[in-house]
Amino acid sequence: MINKVISLLEINKKISGYKIYETNTESVELFFIKKSLDMDRAKVVSHLMLTVYVDFEEENAHFRGSSSSEIHPTMTEEAILRTIERLSFSASFVKNEVYPLPSKEGNNPKIVISNLNEKPLSEWIPEITEAIYKEDIYDKGGINSAELFLNKNTTRIVNSKGIDVSYSNYDGTVEFITTWKEKEEEIELYRNVDFSSFNPEQLHMEIANMISQCKDKALAKPTPILDKIPILLTGAPVKEFFLYYYDQASAISAYEKESTLKVGDNVQGENIIGDKLSITLDPQLNNSTFSVPYDDDGFPLSKIELYKDGILKRNFGSVRYCHYLNIEPTGEICNIIISGGSKLKSELKQTPYLELIAFSDFQMNPVTGYFAGEIRLGYYYDGNSIISVTGGSISGNIKDVHSNMYLSKELQQDNDFVGPETILLNGASIAGCTE
Fold first, then answer.
1. CA–CA separation, 223 vs 143, rounded Å?
2. Distance between CA atoms of residues 51 and 69, nearest Å
3. Is residue 413 within 8 Å of 287, Cβ to Cβ?
4. Which of 312, 291, 311 is nearest to 303 (CA)?
5. Can you name the residues that pair with 178 across neighbouring β-strands?
């Protein structure tokens, strides 16, 4: 199919370049109600996305426009030609600054090997199913429903500058709802776990944690009104919190003036009391579904240092946006690794605190730094005892808290994120519940 599309592209003289991104995915899917299999299916699907580039001049200014569309396997040559003509016409109205397309290079990046390649996808199903339900052992609660998606993806990227690269990778997702009933109170919580290699202990831990959270949520008291108390973020909210630093360092954010951070600046300010941030991007991170040897443009990826002790070492981004900033391109890298801090979790819990582990919706604005979330589950320590709490909300701005922030030595992995399991914030606001 790719060769046919390329031959048809050569007919259109308006086109200055092209990119073809083809994926073939083999998948198995299972749907459970409690511990019973309700439905299963397997499929093989193919997608081919074509992007065309058109260079043009207007009022002595040069532009490179682009437009994309999917080319379906059943399309006739006439239909493909019409699509190419439509794309070239659309691209001629897109006034992007001129930028180069990635060209063929000799760099052969490392490819992460998954243990899922050891046998066909269908043969993994019994082991993964067993891992999902191993911790479902309680009378008052457990897994209400679960869905398993397991994919083998083969990707090929071809462009008009000589790039022609291919690779395979795996991605799996377990989505599940856990429940717990305590007297008249029944709680449901949702979680999804993404993985690229099968690690049964990972599933055991995630599901055991969710069942435990359901139980604690069922027994939780309203979050009290608290003032100037240290806040601990633990688990999933930590990942969302740290995305601020990722976005602030991206080339596209710098180009679009959404980030004013410059190389050599300290993102945490000049008077840091707590732990300093050190962040790397690693396209070959184990067990991440975003680990790939090339970005979507076919540019080869390698590990880079983003921040060291709070100081921005470089921006990262696609060939296009790095060209706009006149810096060496890194390609788009999704995996983020944050070094652990100076304290154990137990050391962060020596004085009264409010630890928050689940939100109805925790959001971080990557431009302004404002964050907020409605508390679904937390733990309040008053200096004598710990109780589970729910309700109320947290809010603040990362610029007001990250100079006095502590990171746990213990690390966690959540797919494309590796970082501290817990962070301690001073200065965030808590809106408690009125009884």
1. 27
2. 7
3. yes
4. 291
5. 143, 189
The pair of structure tokens assigned to 243 is 């995305």
Rounded Cα–Cα distance for residues 18 and 401 (Å): 46
- Within a 13 Å sphere around the CA of 20, how many CA atoms are in the beta-carbon half? 24
Vertex 104, ends 98 and 109: CA angle to 5°?
A: 115
Token pair in block for residue 178:
């856990």
Q: Which of 179, 182, 156 is nearest to 169 (CA)?
A: 156
Residue partners of 422: CB distance under 8 A and separation at least 6: 232, 233, 234, 238, 345, 348, 355, 407, 408, 410
Q: Find where tokens 């027994």 sit.
A: 219
Beta strands in 59-140 (DSSP E): 61-70
Vertex 248, ends 428 and 232: CA angle to 5°?
25
Query: Are the C-beta atoms of 300 and 294 separated by less than 8 Å?
Result: yes
Residue 126 CB partners (closer than 8 Å, separation 6+) = none
pTM of structure: 0.93
Domains along the chain with CATH numbers? 2-216 (3.30.2290.10), 220-435 (no CATH)
Amino acid sitting at position 138: Y
* Triad 216, 218, 224: Cα angle to 5°: 75
Q: Which two tokens stand for residue 384?
A: 């004598």
What is d(CA 319, CA 53) in angstroms, rounded to the nearest whole number? 15
Q: Walk along the chain (435 residues) and give the pLDDT tens digit of each residue.
A: 899 999 999 998 899 999 999 999 999 999 999 999 999 999 999 999 999 999 999 988 999 999 999 999 899 999 999 999 999 999 999 999 999 999 987 677 888 889 999 999 999 999 999 999 999 999 899 999 999 999 999 999 999 999 999 999 999 999 999 999 987 788 999 999 999 999 999 999 999 999 999 999 999 999 998 888 999 999 999 999 999 999 999 999 999 999 999 999 999 998 899 999 999 999 999 999 999 999 999 999 999 999 999 999 999 999 999 999 999 999 999 999 999 999 999 999 999 999 999 999 899 999 999 999 999 999 999 999 999 999 999 999 999 999 999 999 999 999 999 999 999 999 899 987 755
Closest to 307 in 3D by CA, of 407, 224, 394: 407
213 Cβ partners below 8 Å, 6+ apart?
178, 189, 357, 358, 377
The residues near 48 (Cβ < 8 Å, ≥ 6 apart) are: 1, 2, 5, 20, 21, 22, 70, 71, 72, 73
- CA dist 296 and 278 (Å) reads 27
Amino acid identity at 189: L
